[in-house]
């Protein structure tokens, strides 16, 4: 059995109008029917752009917002239906690491007080001395010095503050840690430190994470399973590698092609899908497939019928009517302003000519390895360009 | 002759009784006509202060500028405020990071765009409105005539950034400075904006100084890249050369820190240890030495010079640069 199971979770926020009588004039469909499973000891990555409902979903798991419909089952207990009193003690098993490390730490509490408050509330440790001992252990684990205990949040750097946030979750020995954009406020060099720390902790303590982030590269790096959200629902869910190697949903493909890769060679060659326009409002989502307004492959059926998340084989689930047609190329991108630029086999000749000759002796080796990578991607890109050209 | 020459630029903020802070500590680079030059670095490295100094947007009190910055022969650092106002928007323009706070919330977008056209191109009334609509259309805002009457809060984030770009290119400046133009945007919108910037540079021949922390953005856009650390350029090279052979340990470390979408899963990241120090002390050795895995005793004395340890045109400020290809992080 999975540690966490969400089944048809919906979170709708009412939109109210009027001064005396709050008339509900509509709803914001922040989360609209999400089912997923998180296995113990694994990392589930939830990725999507702003406004897709990923943070609301994370908060719904902790019941920081009430669930409109559906169930959130952690280890056999439905969090969504737990009475208030039991919920409080149950929350020990669900902890959260927040995005803004400074904003989520009380500036007037020292680190010992921040970390021991939750422990005292949940009755961990018989006395302060015992708790302090435990906190010291955890601080060492997250890479903070023991003298941090008597210091205040402003005395730490951003990366260290995020370590404190992680320690605060860890001291309660939770079953599941929800990380909401754990590294997006940090510089890249610090980001890598925190990502590595999360991975190390998972390995040594057997933690389970639900990581919520907008950065597909970060999510792919740390997750075992990735769910891609668009306007309140999952459009694709797959094991990390399979999602990267074979993104099936047009939105995932567009998202992937939009993530910049720090390598000019790759940047010039890979497939690029430029979506047109912005995310529609979750208060007034389009009928049918939520993505059809921006999808390069949209068909009449897409605006009428909402596709279900179905298994396309090997645990790779996708919510699209035309997965197979798009994949085998019988459906071409048309009828939308989005631009699809197929991956190119080689960099343009004049560009290559401009490249200065590297002076170092190992340049021969480098050129060779460059060639092999080019042929490898050639195979992939040929498939793609054939797909497109066949139907023209 | 390059369009923009920045030579040993220094910006020092007076510390009000405390020690002065030198945010930019001798930055030099050139931008040629039609070229895209990247300034890359983490927060606090001085990249934004450099751009503000070039645009003359730093407060006149408490800030000391040093060095030289010339746009087509005009020294930007010694211009009078009124001369600077003539230049700004006409010859050089800036695109800011946060499109919402860079637009006046109580003035319709149209008025904000026509203001520039009036000031620099002398267009009035209907002619100015027409040109403004044309500009919004040029940057890909649908239904421009209607949008001109709307207020910034009625536009989406991507559209606000487009409006800001429209204002920047209104007078066809020769130099555009973009300070983290896509950081506040979602990736799919970022891709749209980067495409637009590329198009403008290709079609109008505008030079672009791109300031960003995102090496991925640089890889797709810039011709020449300058990596900043603690107020100094530590590495400077052509885009392909820099990414294929990062020579300064900091650049090397940055590339090793970024989780890559196309890297095989399970490949560990190689972060740079520690964090950037507030007390920038290039005078007593390399400022990166405390975080560097390759530092030697000589790194702790004197400021390292920019040299060309690998190839001509590839500068690095390091006494012990990374030279072997085998050390390049995957």
Tell me what the structure shows.
The complex is a heterodimer of chains A (392) and B (330). With 392 residues, chain A is an alpha/beta fold. Chain A has 2 domains: 35-223, 3-Layer(aba) Sandwich (Rossmann fold); 261-390, no CATH class. In chain A, 35% of the residues lie in helices and 20% in strands. Chain A is built from 13 helices and 14 strands. Chain A has an 8-stranded mixed beta sheet, sandwiched between helices. A 4-stranded antiparallel beta sheet of chain A has the order 2-1-4-5. In chain A, strands 11-14 form a two-stranded antiparallel sheet. In chain A, helix 3 (111-121) crosses helix 4 (128-141) and helix 5 (158-170) packs parallel to helix 6 (188-205). The relative contact order of chain A is 0.11. The mean pLDDT of chain B is 89. In chain B, the strands form 2 sheets. In chain B, strands 6-7-8-3-9-10-11 form a 7-stranded mixed beta sheet, with helices on both faces. Chain B has a 4-stranded antiparallel beta sheet with strand order 2-1-4-5, with helices on one face. Chain B contains 10 helices and 11 strands. Chain B has helices at residues 47-55, 81-87, 109-121, 125-138, 144-148, 157-168, 187-204, 215-221, 239-244, 249-257, and strands at residues 4-13, 21-31, 36-40, 63-71, 74-75, 92-95, 175-179, 207-212, 224-229, 232-238, 315-316. Chain B has 2 domains: 4-228, P-loop containing nucleotide triphosphate hydrolases (Rossmann fold, 3-Layer(aba) Sandwich); 241-327, no CATH class. In chain B, 52% of the residues are buried. By secondary structure, chain B is α/β, with parallel strands linked by helices. Classes of the chains: A alpha/beta (392), B alpha/beta (330). The interface between A and B is large, with 57 and 59 residues.
């Amino acid at each position: 059995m999975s540690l966490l199971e969400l089944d048809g979770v919906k979170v709708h926020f009412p939109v109210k109008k009027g001064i005396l009588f709050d008339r509900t004039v509509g709803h914001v469909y922040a989360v609209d029917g999400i089912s997923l499973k998180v296995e113990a000891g694994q990392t589930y990555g939830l990725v999507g752009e702003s406004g897709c409902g990923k943070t609301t979903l994370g908060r719904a798991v902790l019941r920081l917002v009430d669930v409109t419909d559906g169930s959130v089952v952690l280890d056999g207990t439905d969090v969504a239906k737990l009475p208030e009193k039991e919920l409080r003690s149950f929350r020990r098993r669900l902890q959260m690491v927040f995005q803004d490390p400074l904003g989520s730490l009380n500036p007037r509490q020292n680190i010992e007080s921040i970390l021991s408050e939750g422990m005292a509330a949940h009755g961990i440790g018989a006395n302060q001395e015992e708790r302090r001992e435990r906190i010291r252990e955890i601080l060492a684990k997250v890479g903070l010095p023991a003298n941090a205990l008597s210091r205040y949040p402003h005395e730490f750097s951003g990366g260290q503050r995020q370590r404190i946030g992680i320690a605060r979750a860890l001291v309660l020995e939770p079953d599941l840690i929800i990380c909401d954009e754990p590294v997006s406020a940090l510089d890249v060099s610090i980001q890598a430190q925190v990502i590595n720390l999360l991975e190390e902790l998972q390995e040594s303590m057997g933690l389970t994470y639900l990581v919520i982030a907008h950065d597909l590269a970060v999510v792919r790096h740390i997750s075992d399973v990735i769910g891609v959200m668009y306007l309140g629902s999952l459009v694709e869910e797959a094991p990390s590698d399979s999602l990267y190697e074979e993104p099936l949903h047009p939105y995932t493909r567009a998202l992937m092609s939009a993530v910049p890769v720090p390598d000019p060679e790759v940047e010039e060659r890979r497939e690029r899908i430029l979506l047109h326009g912005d995310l529609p409002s979750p208060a007034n989502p389009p009928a049918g497939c939520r993505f059809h307004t921006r999808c390069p492959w949209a068909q009449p059926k897409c605006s009428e019928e909402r596709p279900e998340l179905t298994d396309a084989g090997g645990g790779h689930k996708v919510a699209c009517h035309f997965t197979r047609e798009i994949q085998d190329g019988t459906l071409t991108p048309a009828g939308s302003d989005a631009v699809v630029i197929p991956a190119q086999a080689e960099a343009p000749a004049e560009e290559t000519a401009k490249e200065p000759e590297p002076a170092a002796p190992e340049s021969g080796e480098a050129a060779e390895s460059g060639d092999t990578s080019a042929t490898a991607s050639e195979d992939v890109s040929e498939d793609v360009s054939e797909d497109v050209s066949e139907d023209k | 002759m390059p369009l923009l020459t920045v030579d040993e630029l220094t910006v020092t903020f007076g510390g009000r009784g405390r020690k002065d802070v030198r945010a930019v500590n001798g930055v030099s680079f050139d931008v040629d006509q039609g070229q895209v030059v990247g300034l890359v670095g983490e927060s606090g490295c001085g990249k934004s202060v450099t751009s503000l100094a070039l645009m003359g947007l730093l407060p006149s009190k408490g800030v000391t500028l040093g060095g030289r910055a010339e746009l087509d022969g005009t020294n930007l650092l010694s211009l009078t405020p009124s001369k600077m106002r003539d230049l700004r928007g006409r010859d050089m323009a800036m695109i800011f990071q946060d499109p919402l706070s860079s637009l006046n919330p109580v003035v319709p977008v149209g008025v904000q765009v026509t203001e520039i056209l009036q000031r620099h191109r002398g267009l009035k009334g209907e002619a100015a409105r027409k040109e403004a609509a044309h500009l919004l259309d040029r940057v890909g805002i649908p239904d421009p005539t209607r949008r001109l009457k709307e207020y910034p809060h009625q536009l989406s984030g991507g559209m606000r950034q487009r409006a800001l770009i429209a204002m920047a290119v209104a007078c066809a400046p020769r130099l555009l400075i973009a300070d983290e133009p896509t950081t506040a945007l979602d990736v799919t919108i970022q891709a749209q904006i980067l495409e637009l910037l590329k198009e403008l540079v290709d079609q109008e021949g505008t030079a672009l100084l791109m300031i960003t922390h995102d090496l991925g953005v640089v890889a797709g856009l810039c011709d020449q890249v300058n990596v900043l650390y603690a107020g100094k350029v530590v590495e400077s090279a052509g885009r392909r050369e820099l990414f294929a052979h990062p020579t300064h340990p900091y650049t090397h470390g940055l590339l090793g820190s970024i989780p890559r979408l196309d890297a095989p899963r399970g490949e560990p990241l190689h972060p740079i240890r520690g964090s950037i120090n507030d007390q920038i002390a290039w005078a007593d050795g390399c400022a990166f030495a405390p975080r560097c895995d390759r530092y030697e005793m000589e790194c702790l004395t004197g400021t390292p010079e920019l040299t060309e340890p690998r190839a001509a045109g590839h500068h690095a400020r390091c006494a012990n640069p990374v030279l072997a290809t085998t050390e390049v992080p995957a």
